[in-house]
What we know:
The complex is a heterodimer of chains A (154) and B (89). Chain A is an all-alpha fold and 154 residues long. Helix content of chain A is 69%, strand content 0%. Chain B is an all-alpha fold. Chain B is built from four helices and no strands. Chain B is elongated. Classes of the chains: A mainly alpha (154), B mainly alpha (89). The interface between A and B is large, with 59 and 56 residues.
Amino acid sequence: MIALHPVGGARDEELLEHVAAGCEAALGELYDRHAGSVFSFTKRMVPDAGAAADIVEEVFLELWEAPHAFDGRLGGLRSHLLLLARRVTLVRLRRDRPVAAAGASELPSSSDLGVLEMALFGGSTCRQIADLLGITEREVKRRLRRGLQRVRSA
Amino acid sequence: MSRAHDQVRRNLAAYALGALEDSEREAIEQHLVVCAECRQAVARARDTVAALVEPDDPPPPEVWERVTRAIRADPQQSSGEGKAGDGNG
């Protein structure tokens, strides 16, 4: 199918403007670019691939409904979609099963990167991680900072 | 202002990960409205976090089909255009 807008080479921000104008092809291009990352992320958060796929669907529908919720000054669209996926996943997990996310139920490592993974894929807050590891929230935040620095410098 | 600035820097990684309590998150977002430097720092942190997620196989094709069905059922937004390579339209 031929799109009415030249979506292939457009930047994400430009495509979002088309999405806001109701262009399904622009959403399709963004889906092609980012759905794999969102799916990869949600599969780390929930054990069921079908549920992970449902979350991907919800994330892109939310992008369609509220494209201007994205603020490009605060990072790229991929990071926005992952945060969206995190929120959708946690809402579903709390609704369907009032326990921590799948990733958080695995044996956690208290290393900087282990704490980073608990926050990212386990869907845990600093407070929850602190309670789980028996350390202060301040220490959790310190480990998250160090973990992110290590990732950045790797 | 500088106190809020320091708070953002301490909480930057946690904020980028979405791991703060609502009250902390809201305080940071109030500061971000007025501080371009912190917005840039948040952007860097968020993009670093996003880079940790390696994309793998795309979701099953029916996921996009469900998205398009839902969109087309929405009379306010639908334009009737399909995704490139979409054989469903």
